[in-house]
Amino acid sequence: MKIQKYRAWVTGTENVMYQPREVWINNGEVWLSNAKGLPEKKVAADKVILSRATGYKDQNDVEMFKGDILKINDTYAEIDYDGSCFLVSFIEKVKENQVDKNYLVILTVKELVEDYKVTVIGNVYANPELKKLVKG
Length: 136
What we know:
This protein is mainly beta. The chain has 1 helix and 13 strands; from the N terminus they run ββββββββββββαβ.
């Protein structure tokens, strides 16, 4: 059985990204573990955003998580989770009969890494300005 990985973006005074080994949620608090799996950081539940790993890596072997911004050819996309799978949507420019056409492409992350060269350039929590690059 594969163990899910998460990143935790802690907001408020810290604004820090953690990659805990484990996460516990109890009575409105979130505990983040250290590398040994022991509780290390306690955070109020409303101050933490958990991002789940997709199980895939980009072309540079960087693990991809929900909320990551990806560079795909000359466009950008954000990884989203719809409750059943990780998705990306982006505008792809194609030249047909000497006419430039734009197509909305919606793929699972699995399909994306199989068909495109993908690079993680940041995430919407640590780099909110990257969200402006995303169209689609």
